[in-house]
Amino acid sequence: MKVLMLGWELPPQNSGGLGVACYHLCKALASNNVDIEFVIPYHTTLQVPFMKVTTAWPKKYKNVIRTGLAYDSASYIDSVGDTKHLDLVQQERIYGESIEKVIDLGSFDIIHAHDWLTFRAALKLKSQTGLPLIVHIHSVESDRAGGNKGNPLIEEMEYLGLSLADEVIAVSEHTKQIIIRDYNIPANKIKVVHNSIDRDDLGEIEPENIYVYLQLMKSQGYHVITSVGRLTIQKNVTNMLRAAQKVIEKVPKTLFLVVGDGEQYNELIALSAELGILKNVVFTGFQRGKSWRDSFSIADLFIMPSVSEPFGLTPLEAINYGTPSLISYQSGVSEVLKSCLKVDYWDVDEMANKIVAVLRTPTLRQALKENAEREIHELSWAPSAKKLKKIYDRHLAEVTN
Amino acid sequence: MRSIVLYLHVHQPYRLRHYTIYDSGVDHNYFNANDDSDKNNQKLIKKVAEKSYIPTNNKLIDLLNRYPEFKLSLSITGTVLTQMEQWAPEALQSFRDLIDTGRVEILAETYHHTLAFFYSRSEFEAQVQMHKNKIEQLFGQTPRVFRNTELAYNNDLAFWAEEAGYKGILAEGWDKLLGWRNSNFIYQPAYTNNIRLLLKNYKLSDDIAFRFGDHDWEQWPLTADKFTKWLNDTPDAQVFNLFMDYETFGEHQWQESGIFNFLDDLPEKWLKNDNNTFMTVSEAIDNFEPVDYVDAPETVTWADTERDLSAWLGNPMQQQAIVALYELESKILSTDDLGLIEDWRLLQTSDHFYYMCTKWFNDGDIHAYFSPYDTPYEAVINYMNVWHDLQFRLGEKGVGV
């Protein structure tokens, strides 16, 4: 069976969960004898042993390189060597226009497209070949807009992809319900295939934590709460800071470590001052590697208060590094992880209540940690790949009939 | 008899280097940026010495030689003096040469250019004493007139200065303070007996300090002829208090603007009239009787259109940061660690809080010109990371934090 997989990024050049999820899903599929060609919009020298990685870009550019971590941080280098920067919608269009020139269309059995960025290409190829199309939703526009009105151009693309696909995969029941709510897609057309975690892929914690200051403060009786993620409305750090103010009233020796960068960076710094907790909040900016891992392991509690999180891998990563989580109900991961505390994203009082409970009750924290550790040892991508393989098989059978 | 009272303020802060949370607890060097940024104090003091201090001092010495009536007053902060000692000894020598003429009066102020008066009276007095010692040691002169950081002034300060034995004090000649009066006379602060108040003529001062090089200003180009004509045409004046940053000459107004020619020309044009002269601040106090009391129940400064402390303490980030710093006072002082105490004092320098200012309207350009940071939020994060390190050092010494 040969699958044409349309994606936007792969680690290490990934802005977030999309690239990671695609990578691990393909890896698990490959071990189920699925032959994958994965097409991305930028040049990579990355060698992936379990699938073929192909780049799609138009002939008028000599090269396309990913220069940063955001979805749109690709540089298009033309024949005379000048660099052009295109916006995300422009990039999405030329990916769709150029894809058929770089692949052998006749060799595939099925098309599997990840998120709206690849839908234009997927629909075009489907109409040319008549192959079954599966679209895989890692996040929808209303998630990314954090409850505000999203970009109508993107919503239109999502609507077309979801409507014209033969089947839709959602990374969580939460996401499935949002697809139904936002786009009126029939529930029986959408299957949930949860994301998972590959613990072998996560770096090891070294003995010396990089947050020397926080370590000393912990020895002085302080607690540390960490959040990791882009500083956007979707991630809801605003409400976490409001809860932090209430926590600090009850437990003054509490520090909040805010890891990440984003459009709310300045606003959140100002907000922490307005709330009177500036000296209790540490902003690190974007981190990866050791400083990213150590931000989990230094914490007493990890918090992911997102307004809407299609899946949300970070609580699983946190427990891998020994730290239990408080997460919002409005997340896909809350369908998978049982041993954690949950709260509605809007409920600041309850958020504070649960944080204080963990800080004041070491046995609660310990129980959450031990049970969550047990849970993630059970987790792998294998069941998700198996579920997906079955969906492929069903569509191929229909085509053959 | 009418007199120009020229008073120049010499100051450079110790700017913080780029300092992250990963430095907190690891590296206690806050002030030495070994890079090419605008946070590199060594680079900046050398630049300002070359562009402003040395050429201006040479010009002033030349004028003192040429015109027996020419005199001026200076205030020089401890933080600029130690930077000159370390990195620009030739600039320090030029100040010594200038003061050795015996016609330059030095004013008293806080050593570290701080707002300590508003947060800790004992700390404030310690810094004034440190400054006095430094001035006596370097220049053999004991200050008799006081100027507070940023000319921040109110009735309490005047009362304090009288008790401390000063014969005069400086303030902004702000309309709200003066009412129907003007700044061209000697005044007496309300509720005092002996001390005198000299008020900055902000219009004439800012014509030189801010507008001199502004080609859009309807009075541009400003010549000494034109300027002295304005003064000569002013009826009933005793003093023209021209108070400004020393760096006006060669730094804020570049040499190309013609500022040195203006300075060179000013005494000759002014002294053409036999009734005109120059006085130091003490001479002005000795030569004229006060004409009225001035009441300052609220604090007045020389900055921004508000003329209050809002440039330093106007937003919650600034307020939280400065309160966090002064909260550490008794703990820091209890350590008897002179290095730690000095670092804490250098963090009180008002410039750090100025960089955190978010007022963008009329004064935004001025703020951006003086700031080594891209945004005020970066300034807050950098400052708080250093603050966390102070907290770390206290914790390390076993002082509860």
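qc> Residues 2-294 of chain B form a domain with the 7-stranded beta/alpha barrel fold (CATH 3.20.110.20).
qc> done
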